[in-house]
């Protein structure tokens, strides 16, 4: 059960990061810097968490096959 919560948390944080990159790409607007300030320690923590979650989600490759129980 705990692993499922970690998976959903990592996925949620990665989606937030993807939305932020979309905003940067389309509108040149960095939502994280807007909320937390330009490269403050909190902004760096958010960016770091997004990166760690992205690396964690790499482990899902090859595990998306449907299981026949």
Short description:
The protein has 69 residues and is mainly α. Helix content is 71%, strand content 0%. The mean pLDDT is 89.
Notes on the protein architecture:
The protein is an all-alpha fold and 69 residues long. The chain has one domain (2-60). The protein is 71% helix and 0% strand. The chain is built from 3 helices and no strands. The two termini are 18 Å apart. The mean pLDDT is 89.
Pick out its properties.
69 residues; mainly alpha; 3 helices; 71% helix
- Beta-strand content estimate: under 5%
Summed up, the helix count is 3
Instruction: Report the mean per-residue pLDDT as an integer.
Output: 89
Number of domains: 1
Q: Report helical residue fraction.
A: over 70%
**What pattern of helices and strands is seen along the backbone?**
HHH
Shape: globular
Query: How many extended strands?
Result: 0
Sequence stretches where pLDDT stays below 50 over 5 or more residues: none
Span of the ends, CA to CA: 18 Å
Rg measurement, Å: 15 Å
Task: Report the major sheet.
Answer: none
Structural class by helix and strand composition:
mainly alpha
